[in-house]
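ok so for the tutorial part 2 we go from a plain amino acid sequence to predicted structure tokens. step 1 is just haveing the sequence, like this:
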Amino acid sequence: MTNFTELLNHRYGASPANTALLGNDFISSLLSHRSIRAYLSDALPPGTLETLVAAAQSASTSSNLQTWSVVAVEDAKRKEKLSQLASNQAHIRSCPLFLVWLADLARLAHISESRGLPHEGLDYLEMFLMAAIDAALAAQNAVVAAESLGLGTVYIGALRNKPEEVAEVLSLPKHVFAVFGLCVGYSDRTIETAIKPRLPQTAVLHRETYKLAEQEEDIAVYNQAMQAFYKSQNMNVPGDWTEHSAKRVAFAESLSGRDRLREALKNLGFELR
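step 2 — the prediction. this is what the tokens look like for a chain of 273 residues:
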């Protein structure tokens, strides 16, 4: 395994890594994370799915309301449909297990109605945000568990491009929204995947108060790190991280259909008051 200092250098690219960080095998595993988009067709061992869900359910959840669910998709035809809805990403089709993480307020609505109680609070933005956060916390626990088992993963945010269509494919009831997908499987190691650098810690770590102007130098350093990364991976990517990021948020059209997310959520039963 790559040693701790090397992992830090990979994670921060050209930025000087703080080698005084505390390290152990678990932290090294976290630092080794990379998105996997090439999978073997090998089936996962029995119990893998249930293990990932147990790890997910061990994540924190606000007020123990557990406002998330997950749909496990293994059927090739259903993965094909979801791939088409998510910008035709091939890894959704090739991975043996595709998990769709849900913000789920339907369960709370159901149990409230079963007791003859109102559930007006579910109509507020706070509850949708809570459910989306719960789903993200659960999914990240599952990712860490999957990587500990030697599996690779990649998140699929493009499911939010067409929320109503995804809901139809998965038979989601009202008050349930697919926040993102997650490919899970064994990495095709013939295709090398490097650790992608992140911003210097000094750009994201603020002590006592937030400081925006002081990030300029860190961002300039990071631009260089990402250009070096693209070159090392033989990726013909014009411009730098700043340019790519700015283009990603330049116009409503830049959001790939997600500019109508509020409308889609209302169609799915979320009032968002």
